[in-house]
Automatic annotation (TrEMBL), chain A:
Family: Belongs to the CGI121/TPRKB family.
PANTHER family associated with the record: CGI-121 FAMILY MEMBER, EKC_KEOPS COMPLEX SUBUNIT TPRKB
GO biological process, one term: tRNA threonylcarbamoyladenosine modification
Compartmental location: Nucleus
Name the UniProt record assigns to this protein: EKC/KEOPS complex subunit cgi121
Chief localisation class: nucleus
Protein's UniProt keywords contain Cell cycle: no
Keywords: Nucleus, tRNA processing
Cellular component GO terms, alphabetical: cytosol; EKC/KEOPS complex; nucleus
TrEMBL record, chain B:
Catalysed reactions, semicolon-separated: L-threonyl-[protein] + ATP = O-phospho-L-threonyl-[protein] + ADP + H(+); L-seryl-[protein] + ATP = O-phospho-L-seryl-[protein] + ADP + H(+)
Domain Protein kinase: 1-238
One GO CC annotation: EKC/KEOPS complex
Recorded coiled-coil stretches: none
Membrane-traversing stretches: none
Protein name in UniProt: non-specific serine/threonine protein kinase
Natural source organism: Blepharisma stoltei
Molecular function, one GO term: ATP binding
Highest taxon, organism lineage: Eukaryota
Transferase keyword on record: yes
Amino acid sequence: MEFTFELFPEYTLYLQLYINLTNSSELRANVRNFDCAFINPSLITSIKHILVAANRAISGVKTNTKKTDSIYSDLVYYLSPSCNIRSTLSQFGIQDSSTSIIIACFDPQTLITMDSAICGSKDSLDTLASFTNFKEIQSIFKISDSELSIDHSFTNAVSSRIALKDL
Amino acid sequence: MDRHLIAQGAEGKVFLGKLFGEDVVIKERIARKYRHPLLDAKIRQKRILQETRNMGKARKEGVPIPAVLFVDAANCVIFMEKITPGITVKEFLLKAQDVSKEIMIDLAHKIGRNIALLHNIQCIQGDLTTSNMMIKPFVSLGAELNDSNDIIQEILKNKDVGTVYMIDFGLSFISNLPEDMAVDLYVLERAIGSLHPECSSLFEDILEGYKQNCTKANINLTRLSQVRLRGRKRLAFG
């Protein structure tokens, strides 16, 4: 699936979900060699969550305020509420035990390269909600029940935190 | 990017636009040409950060506040969720006819609760007026709300106002002084008195909701009665 950004029309984000992953430890070891972001789907509330983070990552590149060394690690960094880069990348990125993963990249060519590197099967992003662990998201993002009662939207609570993260 | 202006104030412009394919409200602080450009950029940036921080802080406490989607600190622009369907409390009070007592009390209690929760975290909204609050009604299945009259009818039908959102934190600040909280309430009282003189008991009902939720209600309300006697500005001594 591809997504465009109103604020940065020159960027297009391509997302692909893989399930039944078998070579996650191999991918994790080579994470730096791939031109894409690996995202742990269990901590993603919705596609909008990724878009909000991607938007911030692009804006960081544009204004020269990147937090990490690449736009993709920035993307993963901005998925999380924590300012600890190392723990964020392992929590929201790929782990040795990952069995499902979302690939995010700004170049359609990378999707083809990744397809041969990944041992797993493609799945539609519409099934994203079935991977989401809302209990864990609530504790990681420290979302109170009273905040959820506003509009019952995890995505809104999460995007508020990402948008305000280290400003 | 196409956006259209919906409001302009002294320090900012508010647009409707699109972000991630959804309708969003875009709030931009405009440059003031009479200030030195360096100073101007610093002031605008500081204020926009203060505004968004207070919004985030208040939202965490459960005060209904539109979600912030992106802050462009370099250009002083905030992108936030659009409250839809929504109507300002001001428009509701001016346009709606035959509002039952029940709905008015529900509305007042929700406003009072919101202010109390803000004050509990020492957040002073700074500009409490009925146009800085929005009602998002519960929408019954299949209902189509095209304009404000439809929204008003829906609210009257539901016998419940739904969620009352607080918007515009442009003047908000953090303070734990009873004086600031009392002035905050006083500004609202004056605003209601001049805009909606027929809603005489509205402010009392708001205070009722405030008392139930604010931890320091007593101190703040005592202070409010002092502020009423002298007005918003404190007498300058010395």
